[in-house]
Every structure is written in structure tokens, then in C-alpha cells.
Design goal:
Blueprint: H1 3-12, H2 42-47, E1 51-54, E2 58-62, H3 68-71, H4 73-88, H5 92-95, E3 100-105, H6 111-115, E4 129-132, E5 135-139, H7 144-164, H8 170-181, E6 183-186, E7 191-194, H9 209-217, H10 224-227, H11 238-253, H12 258-263, H13 273-280, H14 285-298, H15 305-308, E8 316-317, E9 322-327, E10 333-339, E11 345-350, E12 353-357, E13 360-364, E14 369-374, E15 377-379, E16 382-387, E17 399-400, E18 404-407, E19 413-419, E20 432-439
Parallel strand pairs: 2-3, 3-5, 8-10
Antiparallel strand pairs: 1-2, 4-5, 6-7, 9-20, 10-19, 11-18, 11-20, 12-13, 14-15, 16-17, 16-19
Helix pairs in contact: 4-7, 7-8, 8-11, 9-11
């Protein structure tokens, strides 16, 4: 069994109560050749209790009870269209006559849609959402947020198929739909923002992607290359949607990788899409793998991609003690020192800086603030790791340094340092510490 098969088999045994999204599709039909949405007998639909909600870009048929959240769904969809168009480079002229037909079906009563032949032929038993051509189907959800998420997820598939001619391989297709499905809706101003990073679990009820990734990040490693193997020609599980989202969010948000990622949309119909992906990142492939592992190990709501981005600077062998300043408001930072496997080094740290705790600045030293903890370590403690693909103190598995420690690395590599804090709470930290790296006295 491949690594991916084993990893996904482990993931699949956990039954989380998160709704699944669309079943697999491999669309490659340009807009001009896409079939028109089916005709709906309006009179029979009304008699069956199916309401028609109309927006500029979406006509939605539903038997879900009227509510502000349900009735505004076409307007929410309408706000998504310009954001899709901008991201995918689709001109306003191409949108002029484009319209999608959707069906929001009460999870308790799908019979009216079956009676009127308004279910997707061949995919009648879809789990929660599916799209075919310029139509999509959704089951109602207990969470208003997740109901919108499913609509935007399926809408992304429909938009890409309509204007790009395809959606790419499974991981990219589902990851991009998850990327756009993850959104923020301002109730006060009735404004929709796509591609957001949720700031808390409460903001995205039933979504659960961060929890799924963090649940398994300590139990197994998931190389980015394994995510590329995810095949949505079979029904995916929630954990696979989570990995697809994590990968696309990482690539789309990271300041060093996002420009190349966004150009990949031009290759969605190419059978060698994944080869082109690897070629695009060839010059940073090893660094990207190391950074990916660090990312999934620390992923949290509100993850700050800018501050957590790693400036990979290769270290030089240590010939004499070296001092390096480490900022409290950044993720991993290169010490500029290369440590050799089997040799022993002393790392000592001094300085005072501020770590924000519950919004209040706390004075801190490299030993950390023991009144509070993050990931099982004192908040603000100095951590260390070796940028190496071998086992040991990797960026995904750091060691405690604190005020000082002696280490004998199992693998050679550049020493990286950071203070222990949530990747969502770096922006209100202040100051630096000084780390001194020296050959250990024998």
C-alpha cells in the first residue's frame, strides 16, 4: 500500500460529523457547449411546495422553510461571482448572460424534487452537495454558515467549468472549491468575502477542517506530494477535503508561493497538471516540503501566513560562537549557523520581549511565561529546529531551548529558532531576544 493509501486509511476510521461536499466530476466542456439547465414546471413546483428564489446569477428552487438566511442565498451567490471572476481573470462581458440553476433540498423531504425529476440523474444519492454542468444540488444544513459554504463550494466548480473548461485534478478541484467556500459574511453590511482564514471555530460551525488537520498532524506526516495523489473520482471523506483545503490555502496565501499557484488555473484541462505543478515549484521544492510540515504541525484558526513564512537562509559551519537576534513576532528564523550531526553545541538565550496574552502585553524572557502554555510549552519559550528531511528536531518537531540547552543533532542542517506562540497571535508581540550558539566545551 502506498503512503497515501495507508495515511488515508488511518484518517478514514475516524467518524467526524462534518458534512461532505460534492461527488467527483471531471468536466472539460467549454461554456458554449454546456447543456442548458433543465426546465422546471413552475406551476407544479409551487403546488409541491417548492419556492423559486431569483438573483442575477442564480435561480434557486427550494422547499426549505423561508428565513432571512435561506432567502438571501441568491444574493450571496451574486456577490461571489465578481470575486470568482477577478481571481480567474474572467471579464464582465462573459458574465452578462451567465446564470446557474440550483436546488436546495430539505434534508427531511426530497420527495417533491424526485416527483418532478429535479434530482441529478445518475447521482441521486449524493451526500450533501453536487454540481453538474450549470446546475447544483444541496441538502439543507443545520448551520447557516455551512449551508453557504456548500453553495459556494459547488458554485466554484460550476464557475470553473463554465469559464476555464475544467477544474483540474482532484486535489486542486476540491481544494479550490474549499478555498472559495471558506468565507466571511458580514451580517451588518450584508457583505461576502471569499478565501478567508477563519479566526475561530465559532465563526465556521460544522466546517471542521483545522480540527481534522491538527488531529492527525501529531500522528502521521502527510507530505504535500501525497495530497497531490488525492483522487476525487471516488467519493472523498471529510479528512480528504481538509487536506485539499489545507494545501490550496497554504499555496494561495504564502507570499513566496501564491503567484505561481494562481497561474496554475491556466492548466486545469491539462492531463499533466501535477507535473506542471512540480515544475513550477522545482526551485523551492525541498523548502516548500519543510515549510508544509511546519504549517500543518502548527495550523490554527487565524494562521498568519505572512509572519509564519520562513526565509530559508542556509547556515555556515560554526567555527566560533555566533550571536543572532530572534524577533518575537515572527515564525521560524534562520540562525545562519549549520549544525553538524554528532557534534555537540551549546545554545544560550537572553533578552526581554513582550508576548501578548489575552490581548495584554506580558514581559517575557526565553524561558517563557509559565503562567500560560501553548502546545504544551510555556508561552514565549525559545524553540529550536534543524532544517532537515531526516528525523530529529525538524521544523515540525522542535526542541525546547529556553534560557539554554546543549544539543547533539542527529542530522546536519541549519538551526532555526522562534518563540513559542500561536501562529494567529504573532502580530501583537514585540521585541527580540539574543541567542548565542557555541561549540560545546569538551
Amino acid at each position: 500500500m502506498s503512503f497515501l493509501g495507508g495515511a488515508l486509511a488511518i484518517l478514514a476510521i475516524v467518524n467526524f460529523a462534518f458534512a461532505q461536499s460534492s461527488r467527483p466530476r471531471r468536466p472539460d466542456t467549454p461554456l458554449a457547449n454546456m447543456p442548458e439547465p433543465r426546465l422546471v414546471d413552475e406551476e407544479r413546483a409551487r403546488a409541491a411546495g417548492i419556492r423559486k428564489l431569483t438573483g442575477k446569477y442564480l435561480v434557486l428552487y427550494t422547499n426549505v422553510k423561508s428565513s432571512p438566511e435561506v432567502d438571501r442565498l441568491p444574493k450571496v451567490f451574486d456577490q461571489a461571482v465578481p470575486q470568482w471572476a477577478e481571481y480567474f481573470g474572467v471579464g464582465a462581458d462573459k458574465l452578462r448572460n451567465w446564470q446557474v440553476q440550483g436546488f436546495l433540498i430539505s434534508a427531511r423531504n426530497r420527495e417533491p424534487f424526485e416527483a418532478l425529476d429535479l434530482v441529478p440523474a445518475g447521482n441521486e444519492e449524493f451526500p450533501n452537495g453536487i454540481s453538474v454542468g450549470r446546475e447544483f444540488w444541496l441538502y439543507s444544513q443545520p448551520s447557516d454558515y455551512y449551508q453557504r459554504h456548500l453553495m459556494l463550494h459547488e458554485g466554484t466548480h460550476v464557475f470553473m467549468l463554465s469559464f476555464l473548461g475544467g477544474c483540474g485534478p482532484g486535489w486542486y478541484m476540491e481544494g479550490t472549491a474549499e478555498l472559495f467556500g471558506t468565507h466571511r459574511y458580514d451580517e451588518r453590511y450584508k457583505q461576502l468575502t471569499l478565501r478567508t482564514m477563519p479566526t475561530s471555530r465559532g465563526e465556521v460551525p460544522m466546517w471542521g477542517r483545522v480540527k481534522l488537520i491538527r488531529t492527525f498532524s501529531d500522528q502521521l506526516e502527510q507530505p504535500l506530494a501525497a495530497v497531490l495523489e488525492i483522487d476525487n473520482r471516488r467519493q472523498l471523506g471529510d479528512s480528504q477535503y481538509a487536506w485539499c483545503w489545507a494545501a490550496t490555502k497554504f499555496l494561495d496565501s504564502h507570499p513566496r508561493y501564491r503567484a505561481r499557484f494562481r497561474k496554475l488555473q491556466n492548466n486545469v484541462t491539462a492531463p499533466d497538471f501535477n507535473d506542471r505543478f512540480r515544475q513550477a515549484y522545482r526551485s523551492h521544492w525541498n523548502e516548500m516540503q519543510a515549510e508544509w510540515q511546519a504549517y500543518i504541525a502548527t495550523l490554527d484558526y487565524g494562521y498568519d501566513f505572512e509572519r509564519m513564512a520562513i526565509d530559508f537562509r542556509r547556515g555556515q559551519p560554526l567555527t566560533k560562537p555566533v550571536q543572532v537576534a530572534i524577533a518575537a513576532d515572527r515564525g521560524w528564523q534562520s540562525s545562519g549557523v549549520r549544525l553538524e550531526a554528532g557534534r555537540t553545541y551549546r545554545i544560550a538565550a537572553t533578552g526581554r520581549y513582550e508576548i501578548a496574552r489575552d490581548g495584554e502585553p506580558w514581559p517575557c524572557e526565553p524561558g517563557g511565561v509559565t503562567i500560560d502554555y501553548h502546545d504544551g510549552r510555556p508561552l514565549g519559550m525559545l524553540l529550536g529546529a534543524i532544517d532537515s528531511t531526516k528525523k530529529g528536531a525538524t521544523l515540525a518537531n522542535p526542541i525546547d531551548i529556553g534560557l539554554g540547552t546543549t544539543i547533539t543533532p542527529a542530522a546536519s542542517g541549519t538551526l532555526y529558532l522562534r518563540v513559542n506562540d500561536s501562529p494567529a497571535k504573532l502580530d501583537d508581540n514585540r521585541g527580540t531576544l539574543t541567542a548565542t550558539i557555541s561549540p560545546a566545551v569538551r
